TrEMBL record:
Residues forming coiled coils: none
One family name in Pfam for this protein: His_Phos_1
Species the sequence originates in: Lactuca virosa
Name of the protein: Phosphoglycerate mutase-like protein 4
Residue positions binding substrate: R95, H96, G97, E98, T99, E100, W101, N102, R146
PANTHER family tied to this protein: BROAD-SPECIFICITY PHOSPHATASE YOR283W-RELATED, PHOSPHOGLYCERATE MUTASE-LIKE PROTEIN 4
Family stated for the protein in its record: Belongs to the phosphoglycerate mutase family.
Active-site feature positions: H96, E171
GO molecular function: phosphatase activity
A GO cellular component annotation in the UniProt record: cytosol
PROSITE patterns in UniProt: PG_MUTASE (PS00175)
Length: 306
């Protein structure tokens, strides 16, 4: 990043900008003397960032300013500024949009269900949000349609990236429970339901379902592999509620926000670095849905998965 510094003396309390600095800038003014030692920021439309410190001398009124001209990180397009610190990979984990089965509180697991109209609008909302943030280097997705369509919507808004499908990012296989309305499951598939509710993480669900331990191993290994391929980059991973809870379990250190309910198209940011260090940077962000009328929908994302 190139930096320009220039000194100027101003004999008036009115600050004027040197010729090389446009008024289409962000200007940060630091008063370094006197009781009111504070920073002020003067805002203009952002095409460049300018910071300068102003030292006030008592008499005569004389201002000495140092200007620092830097490319604005959001608008410059500078590849260096858009990259992530090379010591870690930033992974933005997104739950898929809503399906009709989510709305019906029907258990999906590995069954391949499309997004509904609400889910497609949710996907557009999260795609718009991510397209306005830092550069995305790659997009990975579960190969199940509800995740894949969400990922493709994001990809179309973020430069037309090719979505990389990965079966290891699928939801937990829920065996005999798949396809049942959750409230009916205890009567129809009692043993499978009891396995789902078990506090023991090694219990598999009858009908080919996975244990929580199997899910944890599968999806955390997948994310670690993705991180190792994209060190210093920002990657989006679109997956499912049960998977995201397992990823939170891997990263959670006992402080900060608990996993809670994983809402549709929630944004969860993790930093993965060597040696196998996971840090939660933000969790459960659905601010892009504010006012959209889709915030309260979406069954699943907890121990019921979906």
């Amino acid at each position: 990043m190139s930096t320009l510094r220039t000194w100027c003396h101003l004999e008036s309390s009115a600050i004027s900008l040197p010729p090389l600095i446009s008024r289409h800038s962000i200007v940060k003014l630091s008063n370094l003397h006197g009781a009111n030692n504070r920073n002020r920021i003067l805002w203009w439309p952002r095409t460049q960032f300018v910071s300068f410190s102003v030292a006030l001398q008592p008499i005569p009124l004389l201002l000495t300013a140092v200007f620092t001209l830097m490319a604005n990180t959001h608008f410059s397009g500078d590849a260096e500024l858009n990259s992530v610190d090379r010591s870690f990979t930033e992974i933005v984990v997104v739950r898929h949009g809503e399906t009709e089965w989510n709305a019906e509180k029907r258990i999906q697991g590995h069954l391949d269900i499309d997004l509904n109209d609400v889910g497609r609008q949710q996907a557009v909302a999260v795609a718009e949000r991510l397209s306005g943030e830092s550069k995305i280097s790659a997009i990975y997705s579960s190969d199940l349609k509800r995740a894949l369509e969400t990922a493709e919507t994001i990809a179309n808004r973020c430069g037309g990236l090719q979505v990389i499908q990965d079966q290891t990012l699928r939801e937990r296989h829920l065996g005999d429970l798949q396809g049942l309305v959750y409230s009916e499951a205890p009567k129809i598939k009692t043993k499978a339901y009891e396995a789902l509710q078990s506090r023991h993480t090694n219990v598999e669900i009858p009908g080919g379902g996975e244990s929580l331990d199997q899910l944890y191993k599968r999806c955390t290994s997948s994310l670690q592999t993705i991180a190792s391929k994209h060190r210093g980059e920002r990657v989006v991973v679109v997956t499912h509620g049960g998977v995201i809870r397992a990823l939170h379990q891997r990263a959670y250190t006992g402080s900060g926000q608990r996993a809670g309910r994983i809402l549709n198209v929630s944004v969860n940011v993790l930093h993965l670095s060597d040696p196998d260090r996971w840090v939660i940077k933000s969790w459960g962000d659905v601010s892009h849905l504010n006012g959209a009328g889709y915030l309260d929908s979406g069954f699943g994302g907890d121990r019921t998965s979906g």
